[in-house]
Design a protein that fits this description.
CATH class: Alpha Beta
InterPro entries: GH (IPR017853), GH_1_N_CS (IPR033132), Glyco_hydro_1 (IPR001360), Glyco_hydro_1_AS (IPR018120)
Pfam families: Glyco_hydro_1
Radius of gyration: 21 Å
Enzyme class: hydrolase
Protein name: 6-phospho-beta-glucosidase
Order of helices and strands: EHHEHHEHHEHHEEHHHEEEEHEEEHEEEH
GO molecular function: 6-phospho-beta-glucosidase activity
Length: 468
Amino acid sequence: MRKFPENFLWGGAVAANQCEGAYKEDGKGLSVQDVLPGGLRGERTKQPTEDNLKLEGIDFYHRYQEDIRLFAEMGFKVFRTSIAWSRIFPKGDEDMPNEMGLKYYDDLFDECLKYGIEPLVTISHYETPLWLAEKYDGWRSRKLIGFFERYVRTIFTRYGNKVKYWLTFNEINSLLHAPFMSGGIMTPADQLTEQDLYQAVHHELVASALAVKIGHELMPDAKIGCMILGITVYPLTPDPEDMIAVMEKDRETMLFADIHARGRYPKYLLNYFEEHGIQIQMEPEDHEILKHTVDFISFSYYSSICETVHKELGTSTGGNLSRGFKNPYLKASDWGWQIDPRGLRYTLNKLYDRYQLPLFIVENGLGAADELVTLESGEKTVLDDYRIQYLREHLIQLREAIHDGVEVMGYTSWGCIDLVSASTAEMKKRYGYIYVDRNDDGTGTLERYRKKSFWWYKEVIESNGACL
């Protein structure tokens, strides 16, 4: 019988900007998320506006004790969240941190540890301080490496005895697809050249490696990983040209993992730079900094796409920032993301074969328009069998990958409690095991209700996956 490791880290994941709310309380500065009321595909505003659901989120900032108690009831071993950079350094370039922000995360992590839940902390999750975007054009400026280093040293020193697991940048490869949300780059995307984007990428990669270096010095027992947006790509046809197209599409993702895991720029990327006239400005110390490689690789996985040179044969589709072509063998979610559990097994094997480093699935889940119902007993819940089916099928394929020999540290399903969508900034796209009474128009009580999937996931954790 296939089994999960005894020490497998079961849990869930959120991001500060999608759940905390309290966007200007206790000294917090503005982040890029506070001026994105429409999410990734919306227009940014000059100031926060009332239609931005992220300003209140699900009020996790004030309700985290209740929510962590619910996570503990499910049996979480780990909880992935992020630190809002602008709670610690409101503008991002100050000399001294904001003590009220530091205390909030002290209390949050203490609450997790009270229940035996290990925090898994993302240092930067799509929430660059807005001031750094406006003054420096975000990660296009090398100055952000220094500001990030100050931030990293501050939180590692403060929380090093509470947090064992860290991620540097969330979905770091997303900078190529969403330069403002991912990298705080104010210059309009259609005005950015590849030179601009890859220079910003270089700055983030150096900052990420620098965080690994500092973390290993200050917290020798900690594990520090990178986090990539997992895009599984298949050829649409057996034409060998389609396989080459897949290889090139893959490299847009794999270059980030290659550099984090191997500590140097791969030859195929250097060739690409030469062929496209891209000249990355590097400081002499950058090569040595990049050699500080990660302890593990984490990634998000929701769907897969196809690639082809025969564009006339394909139908466009996408999911989680990726664009490609529909796979005729797969169904899709309510939001058009193709559902591919076996693709998770394939992805795990591909990454492990390539790097031989432990892997961690830190995002996976089904966004759906849930309906809150009242049972005869009077209990309010969501009968989300569709979510249970999605998660079960993916976890079975995860178990198969472990049987294949892949070393997987854990699994944190995305949006373990309903939160505001990053891509669309709406509440109706729900992922959680816990329903939050909040609507797209901002109404709702914010009360929490256990969905059917809550009890299912509790059993999964209690049995260490044996019930699957």
